[in-house]
């Protein structure tokens, strides 16, 4: 992984000192909250419903054991002993005191971390496939590209005050685990006819109040052209993007209003001017970055302990079948650690759990961890012989829930429990759904199913691309939950279809239960997933299950 150099450390120290002075001026009253707001947002500090919230960047979801331990220390010393991992592979602290934030930033800087550009109208944390560098289906590790983009975008003088926030995602696999088509720029690594790796460039994706699937701007872009091409895209958007209406300021609206062909021509024109200016410096930087992302030295050992445990321990076998993904090295495995124990807050981890995961990474996983956009933690390189020991340690600490990709592995935003923008609760709905289906003992029978919940129209829970999406809204002072069906965040990305009228808070879990029983009745065999069944049959039979009264009245 990337290691900070003297320039990086000096840059962070200067930025943190600058912000410390700004915080002091806010506390002594020299700055009003309105004056302070743009300064704090540049450093990832929000003012939420009950307190300030600090959002810390975990670029492309990669960190080591020492960094995870530092996150745990920060949670204990300046927060309430836990952190919340987000859909942008960040971690949020929900209860810091303003006076402590500069110390928190200095502590992050000690381990090469920061909160820069995790908020504001700028290029946010670049996200990537959480299995990068390990996945069996990967063409190439996309993290060096993501790091290059991070360095390019950080404090870029032209892009600090864009029309609206701007998000980039990168994947090195044909199977998209980074939701690239729901980003302002999505980059999917592909090969051309000559077998050379490059990128399919997607623009104009996004969720929120106007959800759109991104459009392909370039079917194949050589790797060497990526940085100037991205700069061309953001430059064109910076000039064309609307600043008169924040709800129409994202690049998806710019593309929609101007047309993809016009945007393509403007980007190509700008790219032709920019490419010579880079003079190969970007490729020199990339070469240096790539050297820091070399694969670990894989060990050789017998996998007999794994096979023995798998055949004799049904609890371990269930965990392996659900939470383990194929690694590109047959003797290794990718371990997904669920932060979705039934009844718990999705994405939350205690400081002690963070320390346990750090210890496991250092002892068994070449000192690497990843944060997924699905709010779980990954050990990307684990020799199979170590899986029994890892499972035992996770089990001791409430981290061995075997539910990755199942109905209780829910993405949920903080909702009205924390967020000042939320119009409904998300966390309790997620907890109740997970608990209900755990009680019914149906999770594994249901199979792959992605439920995503947002507490307002801003869609931080990605509900539009959930197989079942739930959007909480305020209807005359009462929480009301809309359901969308058939969404998909993969390479076959689709925006979910609204099923009909919303449900009251106490009706939403029974409504989901009716959906699931309808699916179990309708599917063609146990291997047909919810999404496959929905795509085969469409909305009608699921709508009938959701609204049995309407069906009875029609009869």
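Sequence proposed for the structure above (555 residues):
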């Amino acid at each position: 992984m990337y290691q900070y150099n003297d320039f990086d450390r000096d840059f962070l120290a200067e930025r943190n000192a600058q912000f410390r002075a700004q915080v002091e001026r806010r506390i002594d009253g020299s700055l009003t909250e309105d004056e302070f707001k743009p300064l704090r947002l540049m450093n990832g500090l929000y003012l939420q419903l009950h307190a300030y919230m600090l959002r810390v960047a975990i670029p492309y979801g990669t960190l080591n054991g020492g960094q995870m331990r530092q996150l745990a220390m920060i949670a204990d010393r300046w927060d309430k002993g836990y952190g919340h991992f987000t859909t942008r592979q960040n971690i949020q602290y929900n209860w810091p005191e303003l006076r402590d934030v500069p110390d928190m930033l200095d502590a992050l800087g000690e381990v090469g971390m920061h909160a820069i550009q995790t908020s504001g109208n700028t290029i946010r944390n670049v996200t990537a496939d959480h299995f990068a560098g390990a996945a069996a289906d990967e063409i190439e590790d996309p993290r060096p590209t993501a790091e290059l983009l991070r360095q390019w975008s950080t404090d870029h003088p032209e892009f600090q005050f864009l029309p609206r926030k701007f998000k980039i995602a990168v994947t090195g696999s044909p199977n998209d685990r980074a939701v690239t088509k729901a980003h302002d720029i999505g980059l999917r690594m592909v090969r051309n006819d000559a077998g050379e790796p490059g990128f399919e460039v997607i623009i104009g994706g996004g969720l929120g109040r106007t959800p759109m699937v991104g459009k392909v701007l370039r079917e194949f872009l050589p790797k060497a052209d990526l940085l100037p091409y991205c700069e061309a895209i953001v430059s064109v958007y910076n000039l064309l993007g609307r600043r008169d209406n924040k709800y129409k300021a994202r690049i998806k609206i710019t593309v929609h209003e101007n047309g993809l062909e016009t945007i393509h021509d403007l980007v190509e024109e700008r790219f032709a001017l920019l490419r010579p200016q880079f003079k190969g410096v970007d490729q020199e930087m990339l070469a240096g970055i790539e050297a820091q992302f070399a694969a670990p030295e894989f060990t050789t050992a017998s996998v007999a302990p794994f096979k023995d445990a798998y055949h004799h321990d049904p609890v371990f076998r269930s965990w392996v079948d659900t939470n383990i993904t194929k690694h590109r090295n047959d003797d290794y495995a990718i371990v997904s650690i669920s932060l979705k124990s039934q009844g718990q807050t999705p994405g939350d981890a205690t400081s002690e759990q963070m320390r346990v995961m750090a210890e496991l990474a250092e002892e068994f996983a070449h000192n690497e961890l990843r944060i997924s956009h699905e709010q779980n933690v990954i050990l990307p390189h684990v020799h199979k012989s170590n899986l029994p020991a890892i499972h035992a340690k996770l089990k001791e600490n409430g981290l061995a829930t075997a539910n990755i990709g199942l109905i209780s592995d829910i993405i949920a935003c903080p909702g009205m429990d924390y967020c000042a923008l939320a119009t409904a609760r998300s966390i309790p709905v997620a907890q109740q759904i997970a608990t209900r289906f755990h009680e019914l003992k149906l999770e594994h029978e249901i199979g792959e199913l992605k439920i995503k919940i947002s507490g307002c129209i801003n869609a931080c829970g990605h509900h539009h691309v959930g197989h079942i999406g739930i959007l909480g809204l305020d209807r005359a002072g009462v929480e009301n939950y809309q359901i969308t069906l058939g969404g998909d965040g993969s390479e076959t990305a689709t925006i979910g279809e609204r099923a009909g009228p919303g449900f009251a808070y106490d009706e939403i879990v029974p409504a989901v239960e009716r959906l699931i029983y309808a699916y179990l009745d309708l599917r063609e065999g146990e291997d047909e997933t919810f999404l496959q069944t929905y795509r085969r049959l469409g909305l009608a039979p699921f709508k009938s299950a959701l609204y049995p009264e309407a069906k009875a009245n029609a009869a």
